[in-house]
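Appendix B.2, paired examples.
Example (i):
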Amino acid sequence: MILCCGEAVIDMLPTTDPDGQAAFRPVTGGAAVNMAIALARLGQSVGYFGGLSTDHFGTTLCDTMQAEGVNLALAPRFDAPTTLAFIHPGEGTQSFSFYDTQSAAHHLGPLNLPPLDGVTTLAFGGISLIHRPAAGAFEALMQMAGPDRLILFDPNIRPDLIGDVNADYRKRLARMMPMADIVKVSDEDLEWLGPLSPHDLLSGRAALILHTHGAKGITLHSRHGSARIAAPDCDVIDTVGAGDTLNAALLAALGDTTPLTPRVLGLADADTLYNAAAFATRAATFSTTRPGANPPTHKDLI
C-alpha cells in the first residue's frame, strides 16, 4: 500500500451564486488527500495518514476518500476544526488564504504514528511540515520507514504560512529531503530553498528529481542525466492539485511496471523513468482542465 501523509483540507473554490454574486464552493483538498484520491483513481492500493476532524467538513473528507477507495484505517480523528483554504486564482497560478488555527491537523503528534505493516511506499509534503507537533510526527514517520520503503517528498512550500518558524522549518526540510528516494520541487520551491539546484538534491538518497515549471512542463533528473518533458497543450481551468496528481501518476506508472522499492528505482533505466514522468505530466495537465483537484482515471488518459 502507498501511504499519503499530510494535511486534509477543504478547498474553497471561487464561484458565482445564482444571483451573480461572488461565492466559494467547498471541495476536498490538501496535498496528501489529493494525491491519495489520484492514486486510487489510477488503480493503486492507497491509504491516508493525517489528522482528520470530526466536524462536518471532516466527515465530508472521510466520506469522499472512502468512496474513492482510500484506506483511512491509519488516520486518527480529532474533535477540532478542519483546515479551510480559500483559493484566489491568478495568471497561471493561484494564491491561498488558510484558516488553520487549532485545527485537527495540528493535533496530530508522535503518539499517533501508525504501524507500517503492509506499507511499501510513503509520500510526504505540503503545509503539514511547517508547524509542530504534526510536522515532527511526519518527520519521525519518515525515519520509521527505513531504507527498504520508497519515499516521495514534495515540500510544496507556501511562504505566506511559515511565519516565525522559518528557521525550524528550513532545518526540517534539510533533514527530510536527503531521506527521500523521489523529490519533486517547483521553480518557486527552489527559489525559496536557494541557493540550491535539482542536482544538489541527487547527492542524498534520491534517485529521481522532478523539477516542475508550471505550464512549461518538467525536467527529470536522475543518474542518467536530465530530460525535459513539455506539458501538452490544453485549456487551463484550474491548477489546484496538479502537482499532487503529478506525484500520484508517477508512482502509479512506476508501480505498474516494477516493484516500488528504493533499490529497483535506483537501478531503473532511463526509458522507464522518462515514460513514467511523461505519463505523470500528461495526468497533471489533464487535471488542470477541470475545476478543483479532480485527477484523472486511466480511462480519461486513453
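Example (ii):
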Amino acid sequence: MFRSAAFVASIFSLYIAGAMLIPAAVDLYYGHSDWQVFLVCAMTTGAIALTVAAATGGRSPVRSTRLAFFVVVVLWATLGFVGALPLYMASFEVSFAGAVFESVSAITTTGSTVLVGLDNMPPGILLWRSLLNWIGGLGVVVLGLFFLPLLNVGGFSYFRIESSDIEDRPFERLASFLRALAAIYAVLTLLCATAYAVAGMSAFDAINHSMATLATGGFSTHDASFGFFENSAILWIGTVFMILGALPFSILILFVLRGRLDALRDPQIRLFLAYTAAIVLAVAIHRRVTADIPFGEALTSSAFNLVSIITTTGFASEDYTLWGPFAVTVVFFATFLGGCSGSTSGAIKAYRFFVLGRMLQNGLRTLIYGRSVQPLRYGNRVIDEEMQRSVVLFLAAFFLVWVAGSIALAAGGMDLVTALTASLTALTNVGPGLGPIIGPAGNFSTVGDYALWILSASMLLGRLEILAVLVLLTPTFWRN
C-alpha cells in the first residue's frame, strides 16, 4: 500500500515539477531573480520524484478500497508540500507553515492567503498560486466525479448522474471523458481570460484571475482582490464564470458535446441556482432599502460577493461585513452551501441538501401514513439507502470536525468569531472568514503557525470530503 501510494504521488509530483518551469520562464522574462528558485525547485522535485517512481514502480498493486483511500490522501498531502517549496524559498519571507498553508489553500481551491503586498509580488509567485488553483480545480473535478463516489464518499459519479433515461453510457471510456473534461475546462478558462481582458484587465491579471475563477479558487494578484478594478463589467463576468465553475462538469460535457438540453434539468443544478438567486436578491433588496443604494449597484456587488461565497471561490469586491447584521448573517450561512457535485466548488453541496429535503419530506409523510412506502427520488431515479446513509454520515462528520477545529483554534488564542469562521471557511474551502482579522478585508498572515497547521489540515479534510481522511484514523483501516 505504501509503495503504491509513493509511486502515484511521485508521478504527480513530476507534473508539478514541470509546471514550475512556467513561472520560472515568466520571472526570467520580467527579469526577476526568483526564476532561479523555480528552476532549482523543479529540478530537485523532478529528481526526487523520478527516483521514488523508479524505486516503487514495476509492480501491479492489489486494487482495494483501502488502497484507494490511502492513495487519495497521500497524493493531495504530497502536492500541498511540493507546491510550497517555491513559496518557502522565494525572495520574500514566509514561514514553512505559511508556505504549506498557501500551497494547500491553492491546491484545494480554498483561496485563503498569508501573503501581504500582492500588488508588488514577483510575477512568478503570483502565477504559481493561480496555476496551483487551476490544477487543483481540475483535480477536484476528477476526484469528485470518479474516485470519491466509488468510495461512497463524494456523491454522484459521472455515470450515476441524472441521465438514467440513457441506456448506454455517454462516454464508454474514461480516457475520452478526461480529454473532453480537460478541453472544456481549458476553453472556459480561455473564454474567461478573454472576457476579463476585454472588460479592462491587463493580460497578466486576466490570465491569473481566469484560472482562479474557473477553479473557484479565489486567489488574486491584488490585496484588494476584485475591489482593485472598480469595474462592474468585470464583476458580472466573474459572477457568470464562478457559477459555471460550480456546475457539474459532467453535465456541461453532456450539454456541449451531445447537445443534451435535458441534462440541465439535473435537480441539484436547479436547487443551486434557486438558492443562489434567492440569497442574492434578498441581500440586494435589503441593501437598497436600508442603505439607499441604487438597486443596480446593490445587485452587482451582492451578486459577485455572495456568488463568490456560495461557490466557495473567495473573491471579494468590497468588505461585505460592513453591509449590516442581515448581510453578515446571510454570508455566514451561505458559507455552508457550495455548488454542485462534480464541480470545482466545496462545502456541503446542493445534491446533499436535495437528498436531505427528500428525506425530511419522506419522514413527514411516513408520520401521517405509517404503513406507506415512500421511495426517495432524485429526478427519475430512486435514491438508495446507501446514498442516504452517506449524506447523513458526511453531515455528522462535517459538524464534528468543524467543532473540533474551532476548539483547537480557540485553544491557540483565537476569539470565538475568528475561530468559528476560520475553521468553517477552511473546511468548506471558501477562503475568507468573518471579523477584522480573517474577513474579506484581512487575511491569515497574523494567525500564527499553530493555527496555520490546523487550518491546512482542515482544508485537506474539506477537499477530500472529510470521510476519506477520517477513515484512515480508524483502527479497522490498518488491520489486515
